[in-house]
Amino acid sequence: MSAPMEVSFSAPPPPDAASAAAAAAPSLVPAVAATAAAATTVLLHATSTARAEDVCAAVERMLEARSLSYVDGPVPIPNDDPFLLASVKRIQICDTDEWIENHKVLLFWQVRPVVHVFQLSEDGPGEEPGEDDTLSSFNEWALPAKEFDGLWESLLYEVGLKQRLLRYAASALLFTEKGVDPCLVSWNRIVLLHGPPGTGKTSLCKALAQKLSIRFKSRYSMCQLIEVNAHSLFSKWFSESGKLVAKLFQKIQEMVEEESNLVFVLIDEVESLAAARQAAISGSEPSDSIRVVNALLTQMDKLKSWPNVIILTTSNITTAIDIAFVDRADIKAYVGPPTLQARYEILRSCLQELLRVGILTHTQGLSGRTLRKLPFLAHASVANPSCCDASAFLHALIQTAQRELSESRG
Questions:
Q1: CA-CA distance, 230 to 312, in Å (whole number)?
Q2: Residue 23: pLDDT above 50?
Q3: What is the pLDDT of residues 172-223, one digit of tens each?
Q4: To bridge 11 with a disulfide, which of 110, 119, 248, 395 should be the other Cys (CB 3.0-4.6 Å)?
C-alpha cells in the first residue's frame, strides 16, 4: 500500500514589529485573515513502515526549516534527512490558488502545518453485477484510491471552480455534523455539474471525492465512492427497475449507517433519469418508469438524514434535467470547454510528460533572443493582423519558428 498524507496550513501574523503594533491597535487597521488555504500532499513509498505520527513530525520540521515561499508544485525531499528519504516518495504543495490570487505568494512565516495522514488504496473498483447479464448497477472504490492519484491536479478549469466545490462540501459536512436544524437552514448535500460532453465533469466528481476523503480522514476512518450506472436502473421497465433501485440504495444505506464511513454517490448523466420521467408523463413510456424515477428521488431525499453522504451528479443536457431534481441540488456549476490558458496548460503538461518518459527528445533550438521575437514575427505574417484569432496565430507561430530554425542552420 502507498500512503500519502496531506498537510494544510493556517497563517499566523508576520513576525515583525509593524504587525505587533497593528495587533495592539486593532481599531486602526483592517483585520487580517487568519487562515491560508494551502495544502501539501506527501506520498510514502509503498514499502514504508514508518509511523504516521513520526512522518507528520518530520514533515512539519522540514517545512518549518525551509524558510521559503510556498507555491503549487513539488517540494524536494532534503538530502540530509535520511528518514524522509527512506519513507517519502513525493511531496507536493497544492490548492493555494485563492491565496496566490490575492497575495501572489505564500511566505514561510505565514503557514503553520497541520498534517492529515491517510493510506492510498491500490484496489481497483469493485463491480456490482447485474442480473441476467444486464449492466452492472454500480461500481465501488475505497478512497483515496491509487486510480485517482493526481487526478485533481491534472484537471484545469476557470479559476475558483475547484475551490468553490471544496468549500461547498466542507460546509455541507460541517453543518450536518454540528447539528444545524435542517428545518431552519436547508441543504441537501447534492452537487450538479452540467455542461457539454468531454469537459471532465465525471473526472472532477471523482477527483473531488478523492480530495475530500483526504481532507476528512481524521473524522471518517473509511471513505467510499459509489458510481451509479443510471442506464442500468431503467433496463427493465416492466418488472425489475424498482428492484434495482431498491437494491442500490439498500447497499448505500448499509454504508452510511456506519458513522465512521464517508460515502460519495456519483450519478453520471443524470438527465437520463429526468428524460425517463418526462417521457412517462407525456405517455410515450409505461407508467412504471415514472414510479421508478419518483422512487429514486425519494431515496435520495432519505439520505439527507445521514451526515456522512454526498451525492455528485453530472449532466450533458442541462435543459433535459427534471426541475424536481434541479431544485434538490445545492450547487449547480457549469463546466464548459477549457479557456485559452487552460488549453495551453493542458498541452504543456502533455508535452512535459512525453519528454519525461523519453517519447519526445530535446533538440537544439532557437536562441532566447529569437524566441522573444517569434510572437511579433508570427503576428506580422498573418493576413489580417488587426483581427487575428488564436488558432490562426498559433499556426503562424509554428510556421515562423520553422522558418527561423531553418535560416539559423543555414
A1: 13
A2: no
A3: 888 888 889 888 998 889 999 999 999 999 999 999 999 999 888 888 889 9
A4: 110
How far is 250 from 252, CA to CA, in rounded Å? 5
Domain of 206 in residue numbering reads as 126-334
Whether residue 38 contacts residue 93, with contact meaning beta carbons closer than 8 Å, is answered with: yes
CA distance 278 to 65: 61
Is 299 a domain residue?
yes
Residue with cell 519558428: 401
Q: In angstroms, rounded to a whole number, what is the distance separating the alpha carbons of residues 286 and 302?
A: 26
Predicted local confidence at residue 184, as pLDDT = 93
Q: Is the pLDDT of residue 247 over 70?
A: yes
Would you say 106 and 97 are in contact if contact means Cβ atoms under 8 Å apart?
no
Whether this prediction's pTM lies above 0.85 is answered by no
In-domain check, residue 284: yes
The amino acid at 408: S
Q: Is 341 exposed, middle or buried (0-12, 13-18, 19+ CB in 10 A)?
A: exposed
Among 22-26, 117-121, 256-260, 310-314, which stretch is predicted with the lowest mean pLDDT?
22-26
Q: Measure CA 74 to chain center.
A: 18
DSSP 50: -
CA distance 269 to 194: 9
Count of structural domains, the chain? 3
Q: What's the first-to-final CA gap in the chain, in angstroms?
A: 56
Nearest to 302 by CA among 260, 249, 263: 249
Check whether 240 has a pLDDT greater than 80: no
| pLDDT for the residue numbered 61 | 86
Q: What SS3 class is residue 153?
A: helix
Give the whole-angstrom CA distance, residue 285 versus residue 277.
Answer: 8
| 226 in Cβ contact with 265 (< 8 Å) | yes
Angle among Cα 311, 313, 315 to the nearest 5 degrees reads 170
Task: Read off the DSSP letter of residue 190.
Answer: E
Grid cell of 163 as nine digits? 475551490
